[in-house]
Amino acid sequence: MHVQEWLETVPAVSIYALVALVIGLESLGIPLPGEIVLVSAALLSSQHAGINPVILGACASLGAIVGDSIGYAIGRKGGRPLLAWLGGKFPKHFSEGHIATAERSFEKWGMWAVFFGRFVALLRIFAGPLAGVLRMPYWKFLIANVLGGIIWAGGTTAVIYYVGVVAESWLKRFSWLGLVAALLIGATSLLIVRRKTKQATAHAAAAEPESVPAPAPAAD
Predict the structure, then answer these.
(1) Neighbour count for residue 103 (Cβ, 10 Å)
(2) Burial class (CB in 10 A: 0-12, 13-18, 19+), 219
(3) What's the chain's average pLDDT?
(4) DSSP 48-76
(5) What pLDDT, in 10s, does the model give residues 134-170?
(6) If both were cysteines, with which of 7, 128, 135, 206 could 68 make a disulfide (CB 3.0 to 4.6 Å apart)?
(7) How many CB atoms sit inside 10 A of residue 95's CB?
(8) What is the reported pLDDT for 114?
């Protein structure tokens, strides 16, 4: 079956719901590929007349904002024990090094860490729960959360949608190959961001001053 014919069978409402759910869960603090799902859905919308990119961007924004808000509430109630529990469940994402890096970003940038964190894979998972743990005033968190969610989700949807429209003839020519290639590009971009984040974490940890043990009391 040609990819365009297959796309016509995909219910638009299922795409909207999937995008909102995955992005919402990722924003809540669960490591899921929200960015890849959004990029894939935006690409689908450029090839599927039944998927409205405006509605898709709105659903993605809603998922991001609601997920971050729930994560904030959970983090505010759970506190530090929550981060320790998450570290046990998701050691690759909630390691002590990652948490320390995120905390330094919050201490330096405040509410802007929530806003810009939406565009960084690591901080996108941390932003909501960590803002709650650090007891950031909710009104500051909400402003940054709403602006970041709308600009990230809406902007990503718009960019990928128009890229898909421009590349439509190429995608039709290669059918599934073009779709798979687009997904691989999105996955590669995410891996590069994660690798750079990991390197930044390692450099930050190496730059931390080592603690000097207190001298032993002199003997009488």
Answers:
(1) 16
(2) exposed
(3) 75
(4) -TTS-HHHHHHHHHHHHHHHHHHHHHHHH
(5) 788 888 889 999 999 999 999 989 988 888 777 665 5
(6) 128
(7) 15
(8) 83
Indicate the range of 20-29, 65-74, 110-119, 147-156 predicted with least confidence: 110-119
174: helix, coil or strand?
A: helix
Cα-based torsion angle of the residue sequence 142, 99, 23, 64 in order, rounded to the nearest 10 degrees: 10
CA dihedral 119, 58, 138, 94 (to 10 degrees): -40
> Which residues, 6 or more positions from 65, have their beta carbon under 8 angstroms from its beta carbon?
27, 145, 146, 149, 150
With cut-offs at 50, 70 and 90, classify the pLDDT of residue 108: confident
Instruction: Write the DSSP symbol of residue 94.
Output: S
102 in Cβ contact with 126 (< 8 Å): yes
d(CA 151, CA 145): 10
Radius of gyration of the chain (CA): 20
Q: Tell me which residue has tokens 């894979």.
A: 121
Which has more confidence, 103 or 52? Answer: 52
- Would you say 76 and 83 are in contact if contact means Cβ atoms under 8 Å apart? no
Contacts of 77 (CB under 8 A, 6+ apart): 132
- By the 8 A CB rule, do 179 and 42 touch? no
**In the 8-state DSSP scheme, what is residue 211?**
P
